[in-house]
């Protein structure tokens, strides 16, 4: 098969209990689970064009499963619970985790353009039978998180997150954002474009707080993509100073 081309060989629909199955090396057009429980299953170098884990109202559970060198293009996050799963060199794109629970999972690879939410939206709550999602003790420290948001009360102090010069964990966001905004006010005076960009970013963070988030995790590369490196640099320095973090 020429590099970059995808030729699917099968579609899979799973229900009931599945244990110890290997899906290694398979090319799958559509993979759907409906109220299934998968235990000790392995997805290694598995290519799935359309992933629909957790379709329907009954939760799908993945327990002690391993996903290695897989690319998961999620159509939707689905109604899923992952317990003690390992995602090694796994790539997630557009993973909208509005009814997804993650407990003691470990991630390496990439999570891109995604939302991990502890709050189930009202439009889904009646269908899945709960208002909140459990996201506890997960290890994202070796993952690359690109434009990925923790929302709705995810306890970031209970997760292991990427750290280092390009990341800031804000434990007291109300005070830190207030101080950073004040420090940037004078810089932005007379520069309407910069002021508008900063207003939009602070508005985004304040919206997350209103939606129940108690801590924020901020990445410099995401800010560069949103407002450009010059404005992002000033904002980053102000955040770091207000947070007591080295920039």
What's this entry about, in short?
The chain is an alpha/beta fold and 247 residues long.
Task: Give your account of this protein's structure.
The strands form four sheets. Strands 1, 3, 5, 6, 8, 9, 11, 14 and 17 form a nine-stranded parallel beta sheet that branches. The protein has helices at 122-128, 173-188, 192-210, 220-227, 229-243; strands at 10-14, 17-19, 27-34, 37-39, 42-44, 47-55, 60-63, 66-68, 71-74, 80-83, 86-93, 96-97, 100-103, 106-112, 115-117, 135-136, 139-146, 149-151, 167-170, 216-219. The N and C termini lie far apart (46 Å). The chain folds into two domains: 1-162; 164-247. With 247 residues, the chain is α/β, with parallel strands linked by helices. It is built from five helices and 20 strands.
Detail the topology: elements first, then pairings.
Blueprint: E1 10-14, E2 17-19, E3 27-34, E4 37-39, E5 42-44, E6 47-55, E7 60-63, E8 66-68, E9 71-74, E10 80-83, E11 86-93, E12 96-97, E13 100-103, E14 106-112, E15 115-117, H1 122-128, E16 135-136, E17 139-146, E18 149-151, E19 167-170, H2 173-188, H3 192-210, E20 216-219, H4 220-227, H5 229-243
Parallel strand pairs: 1-3, 2-4, 3-6, 4-7, 5-8, 6-9, 7-10, 8-11, 9-11, 10-13, 11-14, 12-15, 13-16, 14-17, 15-18
Antiparallel strand pairs: 19-20
Beta-strand portion reads: 35-45%
Distance between the termini: 46 Å
User: Largest beta sheet, briefly?
Assistant: 9 strands, parallel
Shape: elongated
- Radius of gyration from CA coordinates: 20 Å
Secondary-structure-derived class: alpha/beta
Instruction: Name the poorly predicted regions.
Output: 1-7
Number of strands: 20
Summed up, the helix count is 5
Encode the helix/strand succession as letters: EEEEEEEEEEEEEEEHEEEEHHEHH
Percent in helix: 25-40%
Mean pLDDT: 90
Any idea how many domains?
2
């Amino acid at each position: 098969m020429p590099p970059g081309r995808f030729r699917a060989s099968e579609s899979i629909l799973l229900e009931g209990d599945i244990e110890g199955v290997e899906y290694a090396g398979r090319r799958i057009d559509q993979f759907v689970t409906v109220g299934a429980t998968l235990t000790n299953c392995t997805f290694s170098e598995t290519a799935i064009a359309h992933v629909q884990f957790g379709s329907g109202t009954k939760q799908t559970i993945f327990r002690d499963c391993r996903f290695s060198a897989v690319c998961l293009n999620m159509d939707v996050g689905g109604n899923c619970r992952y317990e003690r799963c390992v995602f090694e060199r796994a790539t997630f794109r557009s993973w909208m985790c509005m009814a997804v629970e993650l407990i003691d999972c470990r991630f390496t690879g990439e999570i891109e353009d995604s939302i991990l939410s502890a709050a189930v939206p009202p439009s889904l709550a009646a269908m899945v039978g709960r208002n909140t999602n459990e996201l506890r003790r997960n290890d994202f420290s070796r993952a690359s998180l690109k434009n990925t948001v923790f929302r709705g009360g995810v306890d970031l102090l209970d997760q292991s997150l990427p750290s280092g010069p390009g990341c800031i964990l804000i434990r007291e966001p109300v005070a830190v954002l207030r101080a950073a905004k004040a420090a940037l006010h004078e810089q932005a005076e007379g520069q309407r474009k910069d002021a508008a960009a900063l207003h939009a970013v602070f508005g985004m963070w304040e919206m997350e707080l209103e939606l129940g988030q108690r801590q924020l995790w901020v990445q410099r590369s995401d800010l560069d993509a949103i407002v450009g490196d010059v404005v992002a640099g000033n904002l980053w320095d102000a955040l770091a100073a207000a947070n007591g973090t080295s920039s």
